Amino acid sequence: MKKFDNLYSKLDQLEKLNKQKYKEQLKFDEHVNEMINSVCLNKKVFLFYYENYQKALEHSRHGNIMTAENLVSRAGKYIDKSLLSEDEKKLYDLICVPIDAYLHYRKGDFSAAFTGTKKTMELDSYFEKKFPIVFFHKIQQIHNLARISFRSMEVDRALIILKDIFRLLIDKTQITFEDVVYDPIYLEYNSDDLRKSMIFDILNDVITTAEKHKENEKISILDFCDEIITHSSFNKLETQAIL
Amino acid sequence: MEVFNPFKNYHMFKNSYYKIKSEVGNDTVLFYSTRSGETMALESHTALLYENENYDDLPENVFSKLLASDLIVPKEENELDEVILENKTSIAESRTLYQVIQPTANCQLGCGYCGQNHTKALLNNEQMDAIVERVKFKLERENNFDALEIGWFGAEPLMALSNIKALTPRLKALADKHNLRYSSKMVTNGLSLKLNVFLDLVKNYHLSFFEITLDGTEEYHDKRRFLKSGEKSYRIILDNLIDIFNYEGFSELNTTVNIRCNVDQTNHDSVTLLIDELNSLGIHKKLSNFYVAPIHSWGNDAHLMSLEIANFADKEIDWVMYSLKKEFNTPVVPSRKKQTCMAIDPKAELIDAYGNIYNCTEISYVPAYDESGYILGNLNRTDPSNLLQERPFVDWNDLIRENKSNSPCHTCKILPICGGACPKTWKEGIFSCPSFKFNMEDRIALSYIIAQKGSEVLSAF
Lengths: 243, 461
Description:
Strand content of chain A: under 5%
Largest interface: A-B, 29 and 29 residues
Structural class of chain A: mainly alpha
Low-confidence stretches of chain A: none
Number of helices of chain A: 13
Keywords (chain B): 4Fe-4S, Iron, Iron-sulfur, Metal-binding, S-adenosyl-L-methionine
Protein name (chain B): SPASM domain-containing protein
Cofactor (chain B): [4Fe-4S] cluster
Number of domains of chain B: 2
Number of strands of chain B: 14
Pfam families (chain B): Radical_SAM
Helix content of chain B: 25-40%
CATH class of the largest domain in chain B: Alpha Beta
CATH superfamily of the largest domain in chain B: Aldolase class I
Structural class of chain B: alpha/beta
Oligomer: heterodimer
Domain Radical SAM core (chain B): 101-242
Distance between the termini of chain A: 29 Å
């Protein structure tokens, strides 16, 4: 569509500038290690739990839902969570709740996926105070809510959520989703490259999602993206090297 | 944040039963997990800590990797149950519909060890229609397939080339209609696999995998794999292979061509000679895999001529090393195998040229099995909607778990990378363990050495 030539060409341009994807930069595993050291006394037990959930996530991404569910079951089978401290419980939940939510998403249970993702955001809010990197995990969750809305054909709702995400990431404005607050101060505690890279990756993801929608929905999604990239704050951001 | 240790003095873990130890030099100990197919190399003092389950003294990153590789597992875990669960889940989650078709009962060769009775039977038009209807019904009934895979087996499938050409577009159209990946493979004696036939099959009939058998060099092969008319076959097959591998666009075809060398007491001396010959012809670099297989029972006594399995395994590791030294693409360490054969996939079927339906590749055309009850049905009498779910061996994993498989698999450390070998052979009371069971330690060490130092290191041997 000619109308969006500018959008696509800007996307190409950004792709060239954005050498490293957000997830490649985040190295969340390293930060999880820091959290385990701080919160868990029995690190080995937690590692077992974490390892199995990571494998479950990998399998669910490939559509092997039964295998993923077996791994989830294995992760929890030998651990009595009732014996854990409150902080430990929360850290275990921070691992399992988002992956359980993703499994619901893959199985098409969008309501359960939404609930799990919202609960993850609350857990992130708890941990971000001590581990500011978790703030980016929290942004991932709100992005996941937009994805769930797209999948459940609630395009308008998805675009409202995305608008908030870009306000937060581009304008560094505080946003609130239901009762969960996203305070931009946590952006300052983390690498600015991470923020910029995340803007590009989310934008790219939304444009890819647009291609999967019917024509009129596709146009409204692309219109939304076009609005983002023509916004003065985005242009300001673009003049700085992304990565 | 408050913390306390709920697991204080509580040891939750143990070393996995499913591991094989191999030592390299004086200071490196390798542990291969058959559950994950991963190898951990540890310095000897660290290895000792691991072997003694002294996890508190293991470096954190080592513990973490041992855990991730399933070399350390929960103490309470029943590992056999876990392996069986993974196998069964993998079968249940398989999104490939596998259909083997034997389009003819005919074969030019009269190999001594073959148990099949060859006739001129060919699939007729009604049978081909019924095959298409049967595949169509399965694809429509289950909408979770993402691939249709066809295996063209024999007798000799190329003696029914016209059937392959007639069926392929219809099967491919079904795959396209359901938005599935389509692939097909062929096991052939290679006699009729002229370059033009090969190219036609690859380019127009979606064949992407061929397996061809050479039982040693000419002198040995021709004593075993001769034409029914008594003529020799080696030179014809090899010339076909040379033409195929020398085709200038071969690598762009993305086609896998394997050579299997069947071996027993009478021809094992020829394996290294064959490796030399294939190497001197330059075939080795284009070959995807070269492997040696012991002759097995095919409803007959052919296995009695086989080398004793431990003896075969000793020789096999030498052949593996020799082929690597000669720059062949030889796999060294087997990986996790969740499905031993088509028999345990409840959706997979084989249809022969008489329209008989089986769930095993070793039974059709073999007179010894005529009255065995292994025939699931026949196309002429079986409605496409009848999925023939009463089948032998689909419960194979449960039989292993319950130790009712008439095999040693229940307690075998290599079960995860073997899957239980051939259920039918075990049922017949014939030893069926794979040769790698007897040379795994060497394979693990060899794989590690090559990964560390490159295959050039083998030139010293």
